[in-house]
């Protein structure tokens, strides 16, 4: 599914040609918008009132396309809630290869990237991120008969990774004796595992669980990735948008919306406490003199 690149502009009192120039420039992220267009389009979105989201369609239950082709999942519902709090309700999701998302956000083809994208210093060279909203594990899944029981079992095996993911970077660094096989997306990697052309696939924990259930695969290792919590990726020239998302995220965490969505999409999974309402966080209180 591709987004048609047509845009509509409302000219108002401004001369049409000037408005068109400003609109095109700000759409390309090239120039600061005039004050009138800032009022009209405070977040500098490609199209005023619409958020264009780059995502992936096969990362259930974070973000995926349902049978009707509509995007849903934890990240999708959380983003819609947060965008609503920021005053934008028209949200258009488009599936991309994961490796295409950050460049497309950076060059202004999309307003934001939403796909369980872990925040790292390396990625921050390309885009800005909202505050983190999810932290968990990276998981190796394999067939019941592969003989791979843990990371040592990956030596000499063909391990699938989706190009551009933290899994790819982690495997290159930490699984040097595995033969990495790079895929554009999870579905093609899982198909390769099922057909025997790959021995295992390395992906996000909750998606691993979903694919295990769907295809009778098993988990061989969980790698903590709490140092790279997922955030919404925003172009560096949209600071007002990023701030509005951060404000919405904080509200969604404090009023229990985050928790509700987490329980809906990741039932039974341990909850990272830092995203719960403050009153529900059980941070060890500073020691006080006991009576
Ligand atoms: O770093 C984790 C984070 O802790 C949480 O578990 C959600 O996933 C991560 O952000 C890692 N996600 C991968 C990445 O950022 C893969 C994302 C994808 O396949 N779309 O590269």
Description:
The chain has 291 residues and is of the alpha/beta class. It is built from ten helices and 13 strands. Strands 5-1-6-13-7 form a five-stranded mixed β-sheet. A five-stranded mixed β-sheet has the order 10-9-11-8-12, sandwiched between helices. Strand 3 (63-65) and strand 4 (71-72) form a beta hairpin. The chain is globular, with a radius of gyration of 21 Å. The site of Deoxyfructosylglutamine has 19 residues, from loops. The site of Deoxyfructosylglutamine (SNW) has 19 residues, from loops.
* Major sheet characteristics: 5 strands, mixed
Derived from helix and strand composition plus strand pairing, the structural class reads alpha/beta
Helix fraction, binned, reads: 25-40%
Run of helices and strands: HHEEEEHEHEHEEEHEHEHEEHH
Distance between termini? 65 Å
Question: What tags apply to this protein structure?
Answer:
18% strand, binds Deoxyfructosylglutamine, single chain, 291 residues, alpha/beta, 34% helix
Topology:
Blueprint: H1 16-27, H2 35-40, E1 50-55, E2 58-59, E3 63-65, E4 71-72, H3 74-85, E5 90-95, H4 98-106, E6 112-113, H5 121-124, E7 128-129, E8 137-142, E9 158-162, H6 166-174, E10 179-183, H7 186-195, E11 200-204, H8 205-215, E12 218-224, E13 233-234, H9 239-254, H10 257-265
Parallel strand pairs: 1-5, 1-6, 9-10, 9-11
Antiparallel strand pairs: 2-3, 3-4, 6-13, 7-13, 8-11, 8-12
Helix pairs in contact: 3-9, 3-10
Bound molecules: Deoxyfructosylglutamine.
Residues 56, 59, 98, 115-118, 134-136, 162, 165-166, 204, 225-226, 228-230 line the site of Deoxyfructosylglutamine.
């Amino acid at each position: 599914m591709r987004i048609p690149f047509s845009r509509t502009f409302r000219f108002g009192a401004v001369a049409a040609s000037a408005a068109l120039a400003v609109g095109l420039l700000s759409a390309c992220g090239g120039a600061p918008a005039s004050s009138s267009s800032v009022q009209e389009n405070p977040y500098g979105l490609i199209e005023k009132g619409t958020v264009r989201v780059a995502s992936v369609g096969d990362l259930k239950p974070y973000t995926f396309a349902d049978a009707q082709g509509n995007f849903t999942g934890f990240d999708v519902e959380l983003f819609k809630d947060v965008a609503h709090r920021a005053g934008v309700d028209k949200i258009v999701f488009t599936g991309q290869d994961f490796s295409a998302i950050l460049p497309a956000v950076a060059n202004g083809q999309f307003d934001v990237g939403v796909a369980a994208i872990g925040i790292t210093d390396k990625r921050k060279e390309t885009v800005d991120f909202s505050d983190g909203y999810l932290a968990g594990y990276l998981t190796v899944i394999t067939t019941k008969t592969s003989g791979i029981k843990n990371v040592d079992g990956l030596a000499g095996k063909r391990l699938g990774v989706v190009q551009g993911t933290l899994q790819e970077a982690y495997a290159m660094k930490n699984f040097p004796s595995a033969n990495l096989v790079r895929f554009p997306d999870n579905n093609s990697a899982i198909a390769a595992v099922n057909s025997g052309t790959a021995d295992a696939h390395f992906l996000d924990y909750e998606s691993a669980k979903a694919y295990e259930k769907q295809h009778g695969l098993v988990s061989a290792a969980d790698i903590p990735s709490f140092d790279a919590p997922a955030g919404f990726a925003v172009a560096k020239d949209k600071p007002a948008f990023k701030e509005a998302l951060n404000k919405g995220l904080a509200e969604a965490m404090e009023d229990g919306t985050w928790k509700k969505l987490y329980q809906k999409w990741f039932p039974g999974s341990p909850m990272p406490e830092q995203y719960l309402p403050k009153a529900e966080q059980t941070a060890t209180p500073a020691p006080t003199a006991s009576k």
